[in-house]
Amino acid sequence: MGGAPGGVGALLVLADGRFPAGGHAHSGGAEAAVAAGRVHDAASLEAFCRGRLHTAGLTAAGLAAAAAAGLDPLALDDAADARTPSSALRATARRLGRQLMRAARATWPSPELDALAAARPRGAHQPVVLGLTARAAGLGPPDAAYAAGYEAVSGPATAAVRLLSLDPFDATAVLARLAPELDQVVARAADAARRALDEGPGALPAASAPLLDIAAEQHATWSVRLFAS
Question: Where is the signal peptide, in residue numbers (predicted)?
Answer without folding.
Answer: none
